[in-house]
Amino acid sequence: MSTSGATGTPGAAAGFAAHRPGLRPGVLLSGPLLDGAATVHLVKDTGSGNSFKVGPKEHFLIARMDGERSLAEIGEEYAGEYGRRLGDAHWRQLLAALGAKGLLAGAPERPAPAVPPAPRTLLRGTLPLVADADATTARLHRVFGFLLTPWATVPLLVLLVAMEALVIAHSGELLIAVRELFTNPVLLTGIAILLWVSTALHELAHGVVARHYGGRVAEIGLRWRLPAVIMYCTVDNYPYLGGRRPRIATAAAGAVMNLLFLLPFCALWLLAPLDDATHEAISALLLLGSVQAFAMLVPLPPLDGYRIASELAGATGLAASTGAYLRLALRRSPEAATYPRRARIAYRGYALGTVLVLVAAVAAVAAGVHHLLTA
Question: Which spans are transmembrane here (predicted)?
Answer without folding.
Answer: 143-169, 181-201, 248-270, 282-300, 312-330, 350-373
